[in-house]
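Researcher: Quick test of sequence recovery. Tokens follow.
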């Protein structure tokens, strides 16, 4: 029986999280959306862990709450920008996940993640991240504003020193119609601040 070794972006992102997040840790879902990643993270952290799930749309948080069911007690649903993560999270985190773009299945595709707030959030989360922890960023660039966010993100992660953070880009090259790709950041040295990026 054959086994798929080269996973699509979202399953690969979850494999990375599963390999690094421990039960009892705090983690961040920076873009709650419809709650799939929030649910996944809530299962990973277990009864003693905590997920901080951010979204700027109430509809997204309501969808996420409906998806969580009995795991709701493990999650703080936060109606705010992920750029303000440091207002809500004041402890080390085991990992964080981003899905950039717009809310899937939404009628209003003009509400999208933006380069400035995305980079601010990643910058702050790197300071909170445990050594060996990972931030995954699923990048969708086929919509209006997507290419600008993609380019800003890639420019930012290239400024991170290799002694502090390992950065990979993972993508399937023969997929059609602007498939997403993954950027993953692994913190390899303890630090609270990375190089300031304006």
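Model:
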């Amino acid at each position: 029986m054959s086994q798929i070794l080269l996973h699509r972006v979202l399953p690969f992102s979850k494999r990375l999280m599963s390999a690094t997040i421990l039960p009892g840790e705090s983690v961040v879902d920076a873009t709650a959306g419809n709650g799939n990643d929030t649910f996944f993270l809530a299962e990973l952290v277990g009864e003693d862990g905590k997920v901080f799930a951010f979204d700027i749309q109430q509809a997204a948080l309501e969808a996420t709450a409906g998806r969580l069911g009995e795991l709701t007690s493990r999650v703080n649903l936060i109606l705010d920008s992920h750029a303000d993560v440091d207002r809500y999270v004041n402890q080390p985190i085991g990992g964080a996940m981003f899905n950039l773009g717009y809310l899937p299945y939404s009628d209003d595709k003009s509400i999208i993640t933006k380069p400035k707030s995305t980079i601010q959030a990643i910058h702050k989360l790197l300071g909170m991240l445990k050594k060996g922890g990972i931030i995954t960023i699923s990048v969708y660039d086929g919509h209006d504003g997507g290419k600008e966010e993609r380019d800003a993100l890639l420019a930012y992660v290239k400024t991170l020193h290799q002694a502090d953070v390992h950065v990979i880009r993972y993508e399937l090259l023969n997929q059609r119609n602007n498939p997403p790709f993954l950027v993953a950041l692994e913190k390899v040295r303890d630090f609270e601040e990375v190089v300031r990026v304006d």
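The radius of gyration is 16 Å.
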